[in-house]
Design goal:
Length: about 260
């Protein structure tokens, strides 16, 4: 009886840790996108866009003459203003980013469903305003989840993931290393890039670095395996936060976009 009691008590504490850990990790993840966290100094000047009555974002090069545009989903702390302000001007095309429902000036509540809805509505807004342009979807770090989701439910010309992940567990386990295998069931809003990959038909490019200590190059290789024919590029000596401001990466992305467009034409 004492042994059974001890086992039950251990199981109870494991469940508490798993549920509490998920709550803490989700709260931390969402907090990066909420509140007033606009960078004071940006490389480019973002222009506000109103996607719907309750959904807003920012863009750059909005009137640029090109055959394509980029929808970019930034990582932690990279709300739409920061994403556009730091990354947009390196690309000779319209560059758009959304603030998820429940963050910044977008009204509502932030959760997995409304994040997906935000991504879809950004796409639909872009398609309405730029009907003849091919749509490229790009995500960095946490933003890779919604970029991958969008490419699985909308017609995109290519998907570019920088320092991505297979599921939320890849991120959670860096801090709370409990969510292995079936224990992922305890992640309430699990972002399942591995499942989105099964419904993705556009060309996919995955970028990582051997110096990324947040989402390692090994994770990028495993992520690439989720897609049937993903292009994988591992750069040397690039830190997690520096991908989209590094010349080599920017040039590689531009070349990849041009190559995919050439294949489609």
């Amino acid at each position: 009886m004492n042994v059974a009691y001890i086992i039950l008590k251990i199981l109870m504490w494991i469940l508490i840790i798993l549920f509490l850990g998920d709550f803490i990790m989700q709260t931390i993840s969402y907090s990066f996108y909420k509140g007033d966290k606009k960078l004071k100094d940006t490389t480019f000047v973002p222009e506000a866009i109103q996607i719907s009555n309750n959904l807003s974002g920012y863009g750059y090069n909005l009137s640029k003459d090109s055959d394509h545009l980029i929808l970019c989903f930034g990582g932690s702390m990279y709300i739409a203003y920061n994403t556009v302000g730091m990354y947009s001007g390196y690309y000779d095309c319209p560059f758009l980013s959304v603030d998820y429902y429940g963050t910044q000036d977008s009204k509502g509540k932030m959760n997995l469903h409304t994040m997906q809805q935000s991504a879809e509505e950004l796409y639909d807004w872009a398609k309405e305003h730029y009907p003849d342009k091919k749509i490229i979807v790009m995500g960095h770090s946490y933003g890779c989840g919604m970029a991958a989701y969008l490419a699985s439910v909308r017609d995109c010309s290519n998907l570019i993931l920088l320092s991505g992940y297979r599921t939320s567990a890849d991120m959670y386990n860096k801090i709370i290393p409990f969510y292995w295998g079936f224990l992922q069931v305890f992640i309430k809003n699990n972002i399942r890039v591995d499942l989105y990959a099964k419904n993705t038909t556009c060309p996919v490019t995955i970028i990582g670095s051997d110096s990324d200590t947040t989402l390692s190059d090994d994770i990028q290789r495993k992520l690439a395996d989720c897609y049937p024919d993903a292009e994988l590029e591992i750069f040397p000596n690039i830190k997690h936060e520096d991908y989209l401001t590094t010349n080599e990466v920017i040039e590689f992305i531009i070349d990849s976009i041009e190559a995919n467009h050439s294949d489609l034409s």
